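Troubleshooting log. The previous run stalled partway through. Resubmitting the same two chains, unchanged.
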Amino acid sequence: MSQIERVAIVGGNHGNELTGVHLVKKFQQYPNLINRSSFETLALLGNLKAIEEGKRYIEKDLNRCFTNEGLQNPQLSSYEDTRAKAIQQILQPQNQPFVDIVVDLHSTTSNMGLSLIFCDTYPLLLRLGAYLSSINPLVKICINQQSKENGFLRSLCELGFVIEVGAVAQNILNAELFQETEQLIYAVLDYFEGYNQGKFPQISGQLTIYKYIGTIDYPRSDRGEIQAMIHPQLQFRDYEPLNPGDPMFLTFEGKDIFYEGTSTVYPIFINEAAYYEKGIAMHLSQKHQEVV
Amino acid sequence: MSQIERVAIVGGNHGNELTGVHLVKKFQQYPNLINRSSFETLALLGNLKAIEEGKRYIEKDLNRCFTNEGLQNPQLSSYEDTRAKAIQQILQPQNQPFVDIVVDLHSTTSNMGLSLIFCDTYPLLLRLGAYLSSINPLVKICINQQSKENGFLRSLCELGFVIEVGAVAQNILNAELFQETEQLIYAVLDYFEGYNQGKFPQISGQLTIYKYIGTIDYPRSDRGEIQAMIHPQLQFRDYEPLNPGDPMFLTFEGKDIFYEGTSTVYPIFINEAAYYEKGIAMHLSQKHQEVV
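Second attempt completed without errors. Output:
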């Protein structure tokens, strides 16, 4: 890409993740905070009805509605399907300039710190990741290549990505995480400004990335009821190594359940509230060093 | 009271507070865990529909439906009003034996640790509190005398009380808190067993209690939108002293707002997710020493 011309910042893709909701409201009130001289920035709220009701979604998860099929299917008429089409129309209008980057703001009950989740290992984004990590070592970079088939909002652009912060409960604001996320967004915008002006900081060397390899569900009964909890030794340990034989779950009766894989993995999204209904106790990732 | 004959343990009064829900399910599956020789113990789920849907409530907060007026008003027909009458019928049936103690299990996004909330300073409960504090110094005792007018479930008996644990997000389980709550319940039941048998541990001396004195709301706009967050210096500091002039809120613009009271108070329920809609940023309490 020669120049970045338009960037969108989306908050409240999930209505009960308040950090993004209130950051976007702040940016709408004070657009100077996100204006940069070399590109346009748009701040947009995602699931308006769900934000109003303090829920993740009304009828279905908006952040699973951005599949090509779904967006092109006029039969799909749930609130979220309709809203997904409206958001696509704003961000990617036909025969009009569209956004080059979508920054989708999320929060999680998992201890994800300040994470960026990219759809793939695009050089521009890896260099952004290396830059952000250099100014804040707590920043983590994940790659999840299943963005398009899952219908994530970020998949509207090749360079779309998520900022995922936690641990924070649904429907509350944590002032410290709010401010850290805000600073991270300004650093992202400054980086794009530098990129456009040919003077972005050249970070070279190795970047640690965590590549999504799959999910693990809670142990469940025949009726689908969970039978165990995240093990206390794994709780809040996102991004730390999980080795074969390490405790993973604790049953309600107090029995340990161990990780039975054959190699070390790095769990993330451990104990995310919204994933219980999706059959996900955690994501598993592999740790790589990427040369940037 | 000469003898305690029946104790009820209620979980899921709020459907998204999973610790209580899964503890009660465990007790229903293994009743021996809560059986004691000198009294009956009943384990009961509160808001059945809300538990199924993973919400605090369906139409209105069940834990505000136990006013005398509400329970006697046949016009009130919301799911929760109906359920409140059914629960009253189970716990306090007319012309039949009724429960002497209700233990109502809750969890909170506030850092309440292991708190017991009593409706008043009844000697039996204060001695229970002193006993529990002696075996686990993390146990805290609160008094909220507004239980009846607020329609709390615990107000069904004079000796009803809440066990409130946190910080834990809504709709997740924290294994460590689950196990600590479970052990606390067994200690409560053992204490009642000892009481009935005339051999309960005699704890004497002083007990620290936190008496509810009021609530404080978030700063809000004319339209009711919150304009500030709990200050980072106050977040997770439940039960710690808040002095006049201490920072209390942080606006979205980054401005500190200070506590303007005239004396030191002890905030609890700081940043509880479900209280945003109730206009409550925290409860304020006063710290007392009570002789037991």
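Takeaways: Chain B has two domains: 6-204, 214-278. Chain B has a mean pLDDT of 95.
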